[in-house]
Write a structure and sequence with these properties.
- The chain is an alpha+beta fold.
- It folds into 2 domains: 6-101, Nucleic acid-binding proteins (OB fold (Dihydrolipoamide Acetyltransferase, E2P)), CATH 2.40.50.140; 110-289, Hypothetical protein af1432, CATH 1.10.3210.
- The chain contains 11 helices and 7 strands.
- The strands form 2 sheets. A 5-stranded mixed barrel has the order 1-2-3-5-4. The chain has a two-stranded antiparallel sheet with strand order 6-7.
- Helix 3 packs parallel to helix 6.
- The longest helix has 23 residues, at 269-291.
- The model has no long low-confidence stretch (mean pLDDT 91).
Length: 316
């Protein structure tokens, strides 16, 4: 039995190893037997796995965030790799586990990214914007360092949220030197705040694994939660209505379309830039992820979040 990292798997491989349970759904098969639909992960990726003929003890044990030892065979279902699990158990104290290999993390140190973000805040000229952004970031500092940006798809890794904002700020800096008519304080503040309430929208542990969406996250979502928190904090800090409303508008409009959660489109150039910088970083992340396992000259499998496009790795 070979040991594999998940990025190396192909159909027919047999594997055995330790994995993080990233999500679990309890389902019933056509013959009325329980089975578990698991998403297993390690530092290199994730794979869906099925545990057939599950029992109540398994349902209680195998929860999101659990570390398990699994054995199975790699199959394919709807053009995606899937693990047919033949044996699985909880990892124990006597198991020799390197936890650093189990969790996908941002490629940069969280504290270094945080320091860069705060240096951008320090450089803001508008004192109200600076004061409000600093307050909102610092109140979430601990979780901000490790929280993912999503449960699935782009930046759904440990420290994914801060990595997403870090890269967007770098793009914002570059574009500010091109489009000199914009207010850079407003753009940078919008970038920093646009997804910050994902920390309260999704319940995630220190490994960056999302167990569920919170009640408020399901009922309102991070956009509405974000504008509420800006409004509350602005009043608490005696920030001007103009600053509060501009920042709320930035957060409210960054998804651009009503079906994606934004009831209005941006009415300021800074908001327009925020939307496209957000889209660029998300799509580049998903494309990089699709390309990471390919050799030059190869196409990826269809990528659902990229409109099922097959991404090509140029042979140059």
């Amino acid at each position: 039995m070979n040991e594999f990292s998940l990025e190396e798997l192909k159909v027919g491989d047999e594997l055995q190893g330790y994995f993080i349970v990233k999500s679990v759904n309890v389902k019933t098969s056509s013959n009325n037997k329980l089975y578990l639909d698991l998403m297993l992960g390690d530092q290199t990726g994730e794979i869906n796995g099925k545990v057939w003929d599950a029992n109540e003890e398994m349902v209680e044990q195998f929860t999101a965030g659990a570390v398990v030892k699994a054995k199975g065979t790699v199959t394919s279902w709807q053009n995606n790799l899937q693990l047919k699990i033949v044996r699985i158990r909880m990892a124990g104290d006597t198991d020799d586990i390197n936890y650093d290999t189990l969790v996908q993390s941002a490629p940069l140190k969280p504290q270094d990214m945080y320091d860069y973000i705060m240096s951008m805040v320090d450089g803001m000229m508008n004192e109200d914007i600076k004061k409000l952004v600093r307050f909102l970031v610092e109140e979430k500092e601990d979780k901000f360092l490790t929280h993912p940006a999503a449960k699935r798809n782009h930046h759904a890794i440990r420290s994914g949220l801060i990595y997403h904002i870090y890269r967007m700020l770098q793009s914002g800096e570059a574009l500010s030197s091109v489009y000199t008519n914009i207010n850079s304080d407003l753009l940078y503040a919008g970038i920093i705040l646009h997804d910050l309430e994902k920390i309260n929208e999704m319940a995630a542990d220190r490994l960056g694994i999302v167990s569920e969406y919170t009640k408020e996250g399901q009922l309102l979502g991070h956009i509405i939660m974000g504008i509420k928190r800006i409004d509350e904090a602005a009043k608490q800090l005696d920030v001007s209505d103009e600053v509060s409303q501009m920042l709320q508008h930035m957060v409210l409009t960054h998804h651009y379309e009503p079906e994606y959660g934004s009831p209005k489109k941006p009415m300021m150039p800074e908001g327009e830039l925020l939307h496209y910088i957000d889209m660029i970083d998300a799509r580049m992340y998903d494309m990089d992820k699709a390309l990471s396992t390919l050799d030059p000259g190869e196409f990826s499998e269809p990528v659902f979040v990229l409109d099922r496009r097959r991404i090509y790795k140029a042979d140059l």
